[in-house]
Specification:
This protein has 129 residues and is mostly helical. The chain is built from four helices and two strands; from the N terminus they run E-H-H-H-H-E. The protein has one domain. Strands 1-2 form a two-stranded antiparallel ribbon. 20% of the residues are buried.
Length: 129
């Protein structure tokens, strides 16, 4: 008896949701990196350019369905918290615009983790019994 196990999965809704998330995070990353580079040239904050590059890296890894996307985004998020504290201290209302959107993105990346680390493959495994 021959059992055929095909590891290539169809691209279901989860795949497209992760791709959409990668697209959104990538677009935000490009805007932040470009704006951050301009801000650095003007003598402003160095937060935005590295954060934008981190978002771009997260997007690429999400598109590849690599679990490393979560870890890279966590580094960006932790850096964002540090920057927000440095900029605004413990003033709650000053923190809200700095941390809410990145935290929402963190929740979305966390929700995407079941689809990560299991990239489709074209390998076919046959088991003869």
């Amino acid at each position: 008896m021959t059992y055929r196990h095909d590891t290539q999965r169809t691209r279901g809704v989860g795949h497209w949701v992760v791709m959409l998330l990668a697209l959104v995070i990538g677009a935000l990353g490009v805007v932040l990196a470009a704006g951050g580079a301009y801000l650095i040239a003007l003598g402003g904050s160095w937060y935005y350019a590295p954060a934008g590059l981190g978002l771009i890296a997260t997007a690429v890894l999400l598109a590849r369905r690599d679990i490393s996307a979560l870890y890279i985004y966590l580094l960006v998020w932790i850096g964002t918290l540090g920057w927000a504290y440095w900029e605004a201290g413990l003033d709650w209302w000053a923190q809200v615009p700095r941390v809410v959107a990145p935290t929402v993105l963190l929740v979305l990346v966390l929700l995407a983790t079941p689809a990560l680390g299991r990239r489709p493959s074209s390998d076919t495994h046959e088991v003869n019994a």
